[in-house]
């Protein structure tokens, strides 16, 4: 297993994070679009609209090999701030190195240190590898609520 470290992404990390984000979008069957990925991640970072944690691997020349992105939100029921862990991605060559686990643990630590009461996430029903990781870290699948969404036509 390689040595993996995790840190908060900063603007110098932007090109590498954007490349990982573009690969993540492709994993979810979106077309490659490096410019869009760079713009989207750059906007989140510059506007401080999300928290992006990155995994760096010593055996990959300290290259960034994964990221997770947290969006701040609120839970009205518990009347506290929460994070939505919306994105988690590890490059194929770095899977099974502990990078995903390290990112998830760092997300938990960041939420705890910053007063966020809960982390929420959704994942594809078919993503069994991710589900196994989440459950091994103490995440509990919600069997009570269903998630819905509705596209909004932009004018």
Summarize the structure.
The chain has 155 residues and is an alpha+beta fold. It has one domain: Aminopeptidase (3-Layer(aba) Sandwich), CATH 3.40.630.
List the helices and strands and how they pair.
Blueprint: E1 4-8, H1 14-27, H2 34-46, E2 51-57, E3 63-75, E4 80-90, H3 99-113, E5 119-120, H4 128-136
Parallel strand pairs: 4-5
Antiparallel strand pairs: 1-2, 2-3, 3-4
Helix pairs in contact: 1-2
Distance between the termini: 49 Å
Provide the gyration radius in Å.
16 Å
The averaged pLDDT comes out at 95
Total tally of structural domains? 1
CATH class: Alpha Beta
Structure classification: alpha+beta
- Percent strand: 15-25%
- Tally of strands: 5
Helix content: 25-40%
Major β-sheet profile: 5 strands, mixed
CATH superfamily: Gcn5-related N-acetyltransferase (GNAT)
For the record, the CATH architecture stands as 3-Layer(aba) Sandwich
């Amino acid at each position: 297993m390689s040595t993996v470290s995790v840190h908060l992404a900063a603007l110098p990390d932007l090109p590498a994070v954007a490349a990982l984000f573009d690969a993540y979008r492709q994993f979810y069957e979106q077309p490659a679009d490096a410019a869009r990925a760079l713009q989207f991640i750059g906007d989140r970072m510059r506007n401080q609209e999300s928290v992006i944690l990155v995994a760096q691997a010593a055996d990959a020349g300290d290259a960034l090999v994964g990221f997770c992105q947290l969006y701040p939100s609120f839970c009205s029921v518990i009347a506290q701030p929460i994070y939505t862990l919306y994105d988690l991605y590890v490059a194929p060559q770095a899977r099974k190195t502990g990078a995903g686990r390290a990112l998830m643990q760092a997300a938990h630590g960041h939420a705890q240190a910053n007063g966020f009461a809960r982390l929420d996430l959704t994942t594809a029903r078919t993503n069994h590898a991710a589900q196994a990781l989440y459950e091994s870290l103490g995440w509990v699948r919600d069997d009570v609520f269903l998630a819905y969404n509705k596209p909004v036509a932009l004018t």
